[in-house]
Amino acid sequence: MTDCSFSILPDRGLLRLTGDEVTAFLQGLVTNNVDGIGEGDAVYASLLTPQGKILFDFFIIGQPDGVLIDCAREQAPDLRKRLMFYRLRAAIEIDDLSETHCVAALWGEDCPESLNVDVVRFQDPRVPDLGIRIIAEVEGTGRTLENLEANRVTPDVYLSHRLSLGVAEGGNDFESGTLFPHDANLDQLSGIDFHKGCYVGQEVVSRMYHKTTARKRILPVTVSGELDPDEVDIVAGDRSVGTLLSRTGDAGVAVIRLDRLQTAIDGDIPVTVGKQAAAVNKPDWATFDVPEAKSTS
């Protein structure tokens, strides 16, 4: 059996932006550089509040007549509404394709370099191990799957893979307007261009960039055993260390206060969520220090 997995991601939606001013429009709004984006190119970016918190994070994929935006499906209507608000008189059309198109992921060691199917495909720009993302029309999904040399798996398998890599997504793992880009590791996951021109929330992001370290980060955690749905507080003794955001099986992601984790380790205090032990891990892609964390490799 080939070591290549494929899953349709029902929690992803799709917007299409067309018009001569699309690139200039997005360049003044989002955290990454889209100037000169070509057909098939993809960048990971976000749209922030003026205070610098993440409203939406998404992929922007270059197309001959504009771009596609791969975003959280439940956020697609609100993202379209927000973009329409900023559009003003720009010659841009914004359509929601979430009902007619689907997004999928293809990952593993033995995935084919050429898919031999008529789809939009791009390498996930966040982490290489997340593989390739595919955008296809819903009506052609069956034919697309038949032509892919990959094992069809459920979305939960991809979710476990993504969480084990320590990659969180807005709308699915954390709520809109709650985290700064550095909290969600956008600076580590190719989600910010620190040298581009102005965009909404840039001043806050720039200040955080020039700090020595970020105080908190989203990190992968391993939690074995049963938890009640409302058990999300990660503690060391009687002190909060972080908050569990998402979990499937033993794999999860959490917002962790790095200084408090260090204090817990220095004091040999167990870290737990509910009644279960929680192991905080360091992703292979992270360039920041995680106190005595285990490697995810």
Largest sheet: 6 strands, antiparallel, barrel
- Major beta sheet, strand line-up: 11-14-13-12-15-16
The CATH architecture of the largest domain is 2-Layer Sandwich
Assign the CATH topology of the largest domain. Answer: Gyrase A, domain 2
Mean pLDDT: 92
Q: Could you state the CATH homologous superfamily of the largest domain?
A: Probable tRNA modification gtpase trme, domain 1
Report the strand count.
Answer: 17
- As a percent range, the share of strand residues is 25-35%
Total individual domains? 2
- What structural category arises from helix and sheet content? alpha+beta
Morphology call? globular
Q: Nearest-angstrom radius of gyration?
A: 20 Å
Q: How many H/I helical runs?
A: 6
* Terminal-residue CA separation: 23 Å
- Considering DSSP H and I runs of 4 or more, what fraction of the residues is helical? 10-25%
Low-confidence parts lasting 5 or more residues at pLDDT below 50?
A: none
State the order of secondary-structure elements, H for helix, E for strand: EEHEEEHEEEEHEHHEEEEHEEE
Overall CATH class of the largest domain: Alpha Beta
Question: What would you say this structure looks like, in words?
Answer:
This protein is an alpha+beta fold. It has two domains: 5-153, Probable tRNA modification gtpase trme, domain 1 (Gyrase A, domain 2); 212-295, Elongation Factor Tu (Ef-tu), domain 3 (Beta Barrel). It has six helices and 17 strands. A six-stranded antiparallel beta barrel has the order 11-14-13-12-15-16. Strand 8 and strand 9 (132-137) form a beta hairpin. The protein is globular and about 60 Å long. The two termini are 23 Å apart. The mean pLDDT is 92.
